[in-house]
Design brief:
350 residues; alpha/beta; FAD/NAD(P)-binding domain; Polyamine Oxidase, Chain A, domain 2; 2 domains; seven-stranded mixed beta sheet; 10 helices; 20 strands; globular; binds flavin-adenine dinucleotide
Length: 350
């Protein structure tokens, strides 16, 4: 079988996954004159750069903010998709250890921008999604080779379209499921699967705790556990991002639990996890925070890659097949890195 689209200009490209990486790639590919269709299994764009709104609380239950990255991601955030409500969280991040001893963080790191949006971190993905052809609630299950490229099939086995190229921009574990269910030449399928299997993810339980009145104001926006031995790995004062994220006089803390804690507590009923986290937060802060007025919880099975894999090796096998891969599985769990990788792979595809 000929390599799909080998002769002639690229015309139709499917992108699987409307996270930040897939969306950044979509723009580069569309700018170059291609017809781009994005398939997203959930009901909204943004993937792990996610925001929820409940009971007048607005919070980022996944990624917390975007670091100032390279010129490529900075240009996307501060120029091309600059939103009116883009803010830099100026308060610093402080650190704490297993014993709960809190101290100032690295001043150099604290000087870097911490980008977010007053109305939620997923503003970036929503802005990037404008004008793109995005099919929400469409989980791609597998691909089948055609003469011109690839047919994509959804979870019910229905074909959703035929494309010359397919860019897979989903976490590696999902990418592996798609590849293993697809019709690829056996040797290539084995090599691609081998690369994808090298990626592992850390699970993370996020717990949101709303208080009225707000918790005590601190000289920092968030705390990070640097010795990785505490049950809490990250604790953020979400209302520091913008007062309109919480009801008047209220505050919202976000506790992200360490991988060892998240694994151990994964199957425990949510209300038990929340009451345990409430006690741990109150103890860490030495503050009477035992009665939140609002709670929410999110289990991220594939939160952050613990091991990444080499995208160049993988794409060297995938490109001749008319396939490509991008996302944080290849560069590390950060929004700016996922954006930059989407752009880089899209440029290679062109
Ligand atoms: C709790 C948590 C905290 C984090 N904190 C930070 C932080 O503070 N700063 C930071 O920079 N990064 C942080 N990260 C990491 C950051 O969110 C990710 O690195 C980044 O968002 C990854 O983007 P992506 O586009 O590669 O993947 P994703 O955001 O995962 O996007 C992939 C998309 O593909 C979709 N998808 C999956 N399978 C299919 C399928 N079969 N068919 C169709 N669609 C599919 C998914 O629904 C998703 O929308 C955090 C992540 C988590 C979970």
């Amino acid at each position: 079988m000929n390599s799909p689209g080998k002769s002639g200009t690229l015309k139709s490209i499917a992108i699987i996954g409307a996270g930040c990486s897939g969306l950044a790639a979509a723009h580069i590919l569309r700018d170059a004159g291609n017809a781009v269709t994005v398939f997203e299994r959930s009901q909204d764009v943004g993937g792990r750069a996610a925001t929820r709104q409940q009971q007048s609380f607005i919070y980022d239950h996944g990624a917390q903010y975007i670091k100032g990255g390279s010129a490529v991601s900075s240009a996307l955030i501060t120029e091309r998709f600059r939103a009116a409500d883009l803010v830099d969280i100026t308060k610093p991040v402080w650190i704490f250890d297993q014993q709960g001893h809190i101290q100032e963080g690295d001043p150099l790191q604290n000087m870097e921008p911490k980008w977010t949006y007053r109305s939620g971190l997923n503003t970036l993905a929503k802005d990037m999604a404008h004008g793109l052809d995005i099919r929400l609630r469409t989980r791609i299950d597998h691909l089948q080779r055609t003469i011109a490229g690839w047919s994509l099939f959804d979870g019910t086995g229905h074909p959703v379209g035929e494309f010359e190229r397919v860019l897979i921009a989903v976490p590696a574990s999902h990418a592996l499921e798609i590849i293993e269910a697809s019709q690829l030449p056996a040797a290539e399928r084995e090599s691609v699967s081998l690369q994808l299997r090298k990626v592992s993810y850390r699970p993370l339980i996020s717990v949101m705790l709303g208080y009225q009145p707000a918790p005590q104001t601190r000289p920092y926006y968030a705390l990070v556990n640097t010795d990785k031995a505490h049950a809490i790995s990250w604790l953020a004062w979400e209302h520091e991002k913008a007062p309109e994220r919480v009801p008047e006089q209220a505050g919202l803390l976000i506790a992200q639990m360490a991988p060892h804690y998240s694994r151990e507590w994964w199957q425990v009923p949510s209300d038990e996890i929340i009451s345990d986290v409430v006690k741990r937060v109150a103890a860490l802060l030495d503050e009477p925070l035992s009665s939140p007025c609002f709670t929410d919880i999110c289990h991220w099975r594939y939160a952050l890659p613990a091991e990444t894999t080499n995208a160049e090796q993988l794409n060297a096998i995938a490109f001749p097949l008319g396939l490509a891969f991008c996302g944080d599985a290849f560069v590390g769990g950060r929004v700016h890195l996922a954006l930059e990788h989407g752009v880089a792979v899209a440029r290679q595809l062109i």
